[in-house]
Design brief:
- The complex is a heterodimer of chains A (about 110) and B (about 110).
- Chain A is mainly β and about 110 residues long.
- Chain A contains no helices and 11 strands.
- In chain A, strands 2, 4, 5, 6, 9, 10 and 11 form a 7-stranded mixed sheet that branches. In chain A, strands 1-3-8-7 form a 4-stranded antiparallel sheet, with no helix packed on it.
- In chain A, a hairpin with a 3-residue loop joins β4 and β5.
- With about 110 residues, chain B is an all-beta fold.
- Chain B has no helices and 11 strands.
- Chain B is globular and about 40 Å long.
- The interface between A and B is medium-sized, with 29 and 27 residues.
């Protein structure tokens, strides 16, 4: 089974701090994704990466950046955390593209910015 | 902009009841997926429907893709407490060229024993 591991289940940070959310997958998947999940809004794509050092903006990239230096690791960076970035963050990976390559999700990081 | 709207938003039922969850869009999707998310966990894929009019069954769960590929439904027969969770539909935002998915807002199901 694919395992996607997010380094923290819960994080509490202060406004203005630089925050790193880490995600590691163990199945040599090409694609990795960061979503945020908010009540009533569903999951919204922040960034995705289709190869090492490659990244593409999703629907809500403002205030975020990402890093993919190794195939198995995809980091989400909040350059200067703000209270409106309080949310559940979900990392996912997929082997390839198309409907035969479903997303495999981690268990999420609940970030609170105070 | 492609949107997926799910209804109802919340559903609380007794064990043994039947229910249907809907996923609707004004856009055509090349495929639609259904995920279930249990508390404290990430979403897990249940099924993918690809062909208009397609019906897929997964034990007590029946998934249907609309003929025009703009909508989908999930029907659960004789719901059990283990079916409790957030049900999400999702479709490719770019015709499937990548795995960028648009997710619906979700249906939160609670099955009471």
């Amino acid at each position: 089974d694919v395992k996607v591991t997010q380094s923290s289940r819960y994080l509490v940070k202060r406004t203005g701090e630089k925050v790193f959310l880490e995600c590691v997958q163990d199945m040599d998947h090409e694609n990795m994704f960061w979503y945020r999940q908010d009540p009533g809004l569903g999951l919204r794509l922040i960034y995705f990466s289709y190869d090492v050092k490659m990244k593409e903006k999703g629907d809500i990239p403002e205030g975020y950046s990402v890093s993919r230096e190794k195939k198995e690791r995809f980091s989400l960076i909040l350059e200067s955390a703000s209270t409106n970035q309080t949310s559940m963050y979900l990392c996912a990976s997929s082997l390839g593209t198309g409907y035969n390559s479903p997303l495999h999700f981690g268990n999420g990081t609940r970030l609170t910015v105070t | 902009t492609q949107l997926l709207e799910q209804s109802p938003q919340f559903l609380s039922i007794q064990e043994g009841e039947n229910l249907t969850v809907y996923c609707n869009s004004s856009s055509v999707f090349s495929s639609l997926q259904w995920y279930r998310q249990e508390p404290g966990e990430g979403p897990v894929l249940l099924v993918t429907v690809v062909t208009g009019g397609e019906v897929k069954k997964l034990k007590r769960l029946t998934f249907q893709f609309g003929d025009a590929r703009k909508d989908s439904s999930l029907h659960i027969t004789a719901a059990q407490p283990g079916d409790t969770g957030l049900y999400l539909c999702a479709g490719p935002s770019d015709g499937g060229a990548t795995n960028k998915l648009i997710f619906g807002t979700g249906t939160l199901l609670a099955v009471q024993p």
